[in-house]
Design brief:
alpha/beta, Aldehyde Dehydrogenase, Chain A, domain 2, 2 domains, 7-stranded mixed β-sheet, 15 helices, 23 strands, 40% helix, globular, binds nicotinamide-adenine-dinucleotide
Length: 495
Amino acid sequence: MPSTKEDIFQQAKDSLLYAGALIPGTDRTEAQHFETLNPFDHSVIGKVQRCNGEHVDAAVKAGREVFESGAWAKLSPGERKSIMLRWSALMEQHKEELAALDCVDAGKPITECLNTDIPDTIQTFSWYAEAIDKQFGKVSPTANDKLALIVKEPIGVVGAVLPWNFPALMFAWKVAPALAAGNSVVVKPAELTSLSAYRMVQLAHEAGVPEGALTLVTGFGEEVGKALGLHPDVDVVSFTGSTEVGRLFLTYAAQSNLKEIILECGGKSPQVIFEDAYDLETIADDVLSAAFWNMGENCSCGSRLIVHESLKNDLLGILKQRLSDGWKVGNPQDPETSIGPMIEPAHFDKVCHYIDTAKKEGAELIQGGDVLALGAGMTIEPTIFDAVTSEMSLFREEVFGPVLAVSTFETEAEAIDLANATSYGLAASLYTSDVRRAHRASQAIKAGTVSVNCFSEGDITTPFGGYKTSGFGGRDNGLEAFDQYVQTKTIWYAN
Ligand code: NAD
């Protein structure tokens, strides 16, 4: 029977949840574990295996063996497709369970997990499954006595290193295209959020994905993530996380086998509201969703509001009203909650530090800024600072919390300069009723995704990734994601 969310909440209360290595032939009896906590009240909800370099070696070896055997890579596209569709059907049966696991593990509001994270996760798997038997190679325009085929082949063993903010969805963004392309995948979830990854890998094996083709290693970045990055037999690492750790993967590749590295990193995304923007009420909803959805623990969080001087007071008035009418801050297990806790004490301290620094640097606190006495006390109210200048830390650095920085401009050129004045370039949105301005500005803003008159990150059909220090080496999502996980071969024939 699929577990309900109430079952998972109860198991979390009884500290019975578990995640650990899923590698053929490994035994968990002697394993070392660490406790995993509910971010809301800091209760122990279960335990996670502390894997090490030996587990990584075993997982990579299993992946290589399956890859060379062809048991996954050389299945016909139709066979791989039907196994992956079976897997996504199993996830559909277990959607409440997966949603509840992300809720208790990451402190994400249950309603978001049920309505967004898990449906999007399942759709990612079915979309890539469906794409498997629709990929074609090319025939080159050679002379008649020659034939040249340009074909795409899976690369081999892929390491997927994941962040904690969207545990199930980031798993899907990496694993679905990598496996669909025929690779073996070793997944390393964030140490704070391993539970849904463990369950999804179990379901994959149940659906028929060979055990060696998809393995899981849990544990810490410095132990397990680094071992994957340095491993001489890993062909690709696809990483999502901070820019700081992303840089390390480039050095790991340089120090080992020049493996391919794909990085999806941080952001400081602008929301630009031009003076000819229409419907401030709708824009206000977008601005709040962009800034505060998932507590601002969102790589493409619209954390900078760059608004024309003439609209600022009206827009800020609506934002403040909306925040007091809705956006309930509370226990993520409550279906009414929109804002849950920060993921862990160190991250909570970092967000509080940014709030203090913004005050010291002269930004004007106009909304929130307080920590609420809920659970273990790591829940921060949606916070807005006005009069943020481009020199301030709040303007330039990723907070990864519910803190919105407001700046103003007078001319279009000034708005574009402000939008581009950070080292990041993941996403941006702009609001205008002038189609020519929309066209100019969307080209001038340096970001991997620009949304016009909406707040949206696109969907599974469109590539997602960053300019500048927000990304490196490729894109998640869309058919473009396959490029991360295949290599190009030319095959010449002559008469
Ligand atoms: P993080 O960089 O701390 O950790 C990410 C992963 O790297 C984890 O699995 C961690 O264990 C591992 N890791 C940590 N130190 C390591 C080391 N020394 N060597 C090897 N691996 C190591 O990031 P996080 O705090 O989990 O996630 C938040 C960050 O992720 C934010 O910056 C956010 O913007 C970014 N993010 C980006 C996207 C995107 O698509 N661009 C999506 C989600 C999150």
